[in-house]
Design a protein that fits this description.
44% of the residues lie in helices and 29% in strands. The chain has a three-stranded antiparallel sheet with strand order 1-3-2. Strand 2 and strand 3 form a beta hairpin. The longest helix is centred in the first third of the chain and has 12 residues.
Length: 68
C-alpha cells in the first residue's frame, strides 16, 4: 500500500489528518505532496488552517486535511 493510499484510508477512518499525524503514523514527511497526489487523482480534499499552542506556549498554524 502506498503512502497516499494509507493517508486516504486514515482520513476515511479518522475524518482528517495533520502533518504530525502523517509523520507519526506513516513516516510521511511531505503530507502536502501526498495530498496533492490524491487531489490530482480526483479525491476531493478540504484544507483547513488550525492554530494551537506548541509546547513552548507559542501559537503555531498548520494544515488539517479532510475529505470533502
Amino acid at each position: 500500500m502506498t503512502q497516499s493510499e494509507m493517508i486516504l484510508q486514515y482520513m476515511h477512518e479518522n475524518g482528517s489528518i495533520t502533518p504530525w499525524e502523517a509523520m507519526r503514523e506513516f513516516g510521511c514527511m511531505r503530507l502536502g505532496a501526498r495530498i496533492w497526489d490524491l487531489k490530482k487523482a480526483g479525491t476531493t480534499i478540504i484544507t483547513e488552517s488550525q492554530t494551537e499552542k506548541n509546547r513552548y506556549g507559542k501559537l503555531v498554524t498548520f494544515a488539517r486535511y479532510r475529505l470533502g
